Amino acid sequence: MTIHKQTDVVIVGSGPGGATLARELARSKSGLGITLLERGRDWRAHPLYGTYPGTIFYSDKGYFLRSREGLTIIRPLMVGGATSMYCGCSAMPGSWWQEKYGIELEGIAEKTAAELNIAPLPPELRGKASTRIAEAAAELGMEWEPQAKFLQPNRSNDFDCDAKCMLGCRCGAKWNASEYVDQAVVEGCDLWTGARVDKVMHGGVKVYGVKGRIGRNNFVIEASTVVVSAGGIGTPMILQNSGLEEAGRGMTMDTTSMVYGHAPYRGTGDDPPMTWSYADDDLGAMFSTLIDPWLVYPIAMMS
Ligand SMILES: Cc1cc2nc3c(=O)[nH]c(=O)nc-3n(C[C@H](O)[C@H](O)[C@H](O)COP(=O)(O)OP(=O)(O)OC[C@H]3O[C@@H](n4cnc5c(N)ncnc54)[C@H](O)[C@@H]3O)c2cc1C
To answer: What is the residue-level pLDDT of the chain in tens, covering all 303 positions?
Structure first.
């Protein structure tokens, strides 16, 4: 069976990109029909959310997706996109955005930081082992800063984890783009979960909708505006499938290299991930502490 629908705007992907757009459009009261299509489901209330077994269900290829070159790629597929599993670190845009690309983000970034109360974790939540790394770096002349976070204990009535989560925040202390999805839905946005878009329908320069699958059915949604915000991997895949063969070529990836050491403190998992950081703009790299949550070390070693 094929499900047909007509609307004004289709947004593909409910990560921070798609969720923000859906919320802003829905709140604008423009009267436009908005449909948000998300390939994954909403895992927030599921007992496995935030656990290792859970990641097998909500990460692409069960956490074992590899690039052709052998790099491990973690690609969460669910409502809220990768913010459902991120470390909650926030970095203000550097001045090079403006200088190099002419993109002015400062005003927007400040507004967002104020709305989401972005701030470093309170000192009592910064772990002993990561604080020791920051102190050792300071002795070498690198002034590490407490990492600003999309996480505040007072966002949750149920905060008892000391901010140590990394596979998904179960208590709601960490901001997640699915909150914007909820707000968009309240404002009238039509959310389809489990809806995988395969192709943008177009006639050369003009788009007229998307095609995909939901459950056992196909769907065809006609719309004059289509926004593909399916993430750094999902977006080029859809565009290539739609005939834009060059989409994603030359894409750079934000790679993470982990350097391990041993600290004479309590066991792994007793420290929030990425509590301290140091940005080296000349090198184009950011250093951060990551005291392994339980099991990440063996998984990293197997990868
Ligand atoms: C483990 C991890 C930790 C991270 N930590 C941080 C951090 O601390 N701070 C930070 O700023 N950033 C962090 N990031 C990066 C950040 O989460 C991403 O940059 C951000 O989520 C990208 O937003 P997006 O909306 O472009 O895409 P995504 O968040 O990837 O969302 C894309 C959405 O599209 C959906 N989708 C994909 N294909 C289709 C399709 N064919 N049809 C329908 N839907 C589809 C996906 O299921 C997903 O929900 C982290 C990422 C990961 C994976």
So the answer is: 999 999 999 999 999 999 999 999 999 989 999 999 999 999 999 999 998 899 899 999 987 888 888 888 889 999 999 999 999 999 888 888 899 899 999 899 999 999 999 999 999 999 888 999 999 999 999 999 999 999 999 999 999 888 888 889 999 999 999 999 999 999 999 999 999 999 999 998 899 999 999 999 999 999 999 999 999 999 999 999 999 999 999 887 778 888 888 778 766 667 888 999 998 878 888 899 988 776 777 776 776
Residue among 21, 71, 72, 86 to mutate when testing ligand 1 (max atoms within 8 A of CB): 86
How many angstroms separate the alpha carbon of residue 240 from the centre of ligand 1? Answer: 19
Helix 178-186 crosses helix 16-27 at what angle (to 10 degrees)? 20
Atom of ligand 1 nearest to the CA of 166: 1
The end-to-end CA distance of the chain, in Å, is: 41
User: Closest ligand 1 atom to the C-alpha of 237?
Assistant: 41
> 292: which residues sit within 8 A by CB, 6+ positions away?
268, 269, 300
Tokens 């077994």 map to which residue?
A: 53
Separation of CA 266 and ligand 1 centre (Å): 32
- Domains, the chain, in order of start with CATH, read 2-88+175-251 (3.50.50.60)
CA 139 to ligand 1 center in whole angstroms: 36
